[in-house]
Amino acid sequence: MEESFRLKGLRKKLVEGLRKKGITDERVLEAIGKIPRHAFIDSGFSNFAYEDRPFSIGAGQTISQPYTVAVQTELLQLDKWDKVLEIGTGSGYQAAVLAEIGVQVYTIERQRELYIKAQQTLRKLGYRPHFFFGDGYEGKPAFAPFNKILVTAGAAHVPEKLLQQLAIGGRIVVPVGDTGKQAMTVIDRVSETKFRTTQHGDFIFVPMLGGIVKD
Ligand code: SAH
Question: Which atom of ligand 1 sits closest to the CA of residue 213?
Answer without folding.
Answer: 15
